[in-house]
Amino acid sequence: MAMNLLIAIGASVLAGLAGIGRLTRFGATALIRLLQPPWYPAQYLQQMLVIGWLSLPVVGLTAIFTGSALAQQIFIGGSRFNAASTVPAVTVIGVVRELGPVLGGLMVAGRVASAMAAELGTMRVTEQIDALVTLRTDPFRWLVAPRLLAAVLVMPALVLVSNALGVMGGWLLATQRLGFNSAQYLATTARYLEADDVISSLVKAAVFGFFIALMGCYHGYHSGGGAAGVGRATTNAVVSSFILILLANLVITVIVFGS
Amino acid sequence: MSVPRIELVGLAKRFGSRQVLDGVDLAVMPGESMVIIGGSGTGKSVTLKLILGLLCPDAGAIHVDGQNVIGLKGAALDAHRARFGMLFQGGALFDSLSVWRNVSFALAGTAASRRAAAIDNLARVGLAADVADLRPAELSGGMQKRVALARAIAPRPPIIFFDEPTAGLDPITAAVINDLIRELATDLKITALTITHDMHSVRTVADKVAMLHAGKIIWQGPLTSLDGCDNPYVHQFITGSAQGPISMPGRR
């Protein structure tokens, strides 16, 4: 009984390590191919449009609603300690350091990682990826590299917009509902926002973008088993990118702000 | 005697515990249209993928124009693949691209010249220019097969593989596709390797036929000798009989 348990644990650990190895090799291959010609500019531009522009509404709405809710909660909590005036400072720090990049990353992961996994998975099971190879086109250069680079480049821009809209959501609620003076609110916001906050936010966004595209492409590329296999790949892409985003966020936060 | 365009020697491939190919020997001469027949899951598609370098064999040799092609990498592998066109079973057209971009995918040149070449190739397979700007999803199954055929012939490769070219098509469309393959093979003087279990396809496109069973080529010969062949496996297959030496998995 105990031996069987040990065998099962050992097999799971080995399978996990093998998976990490496969993922690392996949990511390394994609990065190497990214640096080598031929490049396909149309593919890169299309992916930037799909990942960036088309994610803007969902990321923007999330940021506005969350920024507003955050301002309301800080006001309620702060009022208990006679610290309601901290709303602009705490809102901008909370949004720029954490909520903007993390919620933006999670929303993009839900929208984009799933779409990438479904698209590449369908291409795998319908032999389109094999067709690419027979037509002498490297699937890593045609499919994976454009998605990776586009996600890394576009996510910081999305998060910048997300941060701005999140702060705006807080400002809107604070000035329209909580009685804050508009000019004073904005001045306090600007005073408490530091360059490190913005830089860490952008670094997080780029890292999240990399993980989103990597997970979407990896699971889609290795999909198999027909429609059910594509479904599994899609779920795995979303779940794994969520976990990696939250883990990476913790690591970057500890590194940048821990000391 | 001329060198075979494709020669397989003792080709073997295993997936897990399943020995799919177990010493396949086959030679396809230049300009010949060879059809490999065999039941589902006998390794016909695997054979094509091994020749194209999409899979790696466990044992054996693959010679194309006398050259060993196993283990090719980089530019040599690209040059090897440039000799082949492939019609996939489901067409494998790229959903995100228009018909003309699919057809001209492997062609070089400006967009205008590639579009013109795509329209020429569409005409060769009996499709009008007005389908050029459609997406594959807007076409019927038969039209998708024709577009895939146009894509396969567009770079004028000397060898074309046809993987179940009539699978999923109605009998009339299947007959049209078979006639097209025969016509293109003759006109373009290509070497064709077709895998199918559709006997109408076999009789239309084949010069020679080989039967793959239990991982080996158990019979091969010219089409004219197929019906008179005394191999019980071949006989059962071409007559489509449930009775005979070939037993389906799970059947008593």
Task: Fill in the keyword field for this structure.
heterodimer; A: about 260 residues; mainly alpha; 9 helices; about 85% helix; about 0% strand; globular; B: about 250 residues; Rossmann fold; six-stranded mixed beta sheet; four-stranded antiparallel beta sheet
Notes on the protein architecture:
The complex is a heterodimer of chains A (259) and B (252). The N and C termini of chain A lie far apart (47 Å). By secondary structure, chain A is mostly helical. The radius of gyration of chain A is 21 Å and the shape is globular. Chain A has one domain. Helices cover 86% and strands 0% of the residues of chain A. Chain B has 252 residues and is α/β, with parallel strands linked by helices. Chain B has a domain at 1-83 and 160-165 and 190-252: P-loop containing nucleotide triphosphate hydrolases (Rossmann fold, 3-Layer(aba) Sandwich). Chain B has 8 helices and 10 strands. Chain B has helices at residues 44-52, 74-81, 99-103, 111-124, 141-153, 171-187, 199-205, 232-239; strands at residues 6-15, 18-28, 33-37, 59-64, 67-68, 84-87, 159-163, 191-196, 208-213, 216-222. The radius of gyration of chain B is 18 Å and the shape is globular. The termini of chain B are far apart. Chain A binds chain B through residues 119, 122-123, 126-128, 130-137, and chain B through 49, 52, 54, 78, 81-82, 84-86, 88-90, 92-96, 105-106, 151.
The total count of helices of chain A amounts to 9
Largest sheet of chain B: 6 strands, mixed
Residue fraction in strands of chain A: under 5%
Q: Helix fraction of chain B?
A: 25-40%
- Helix percent of chain A reads over 70%
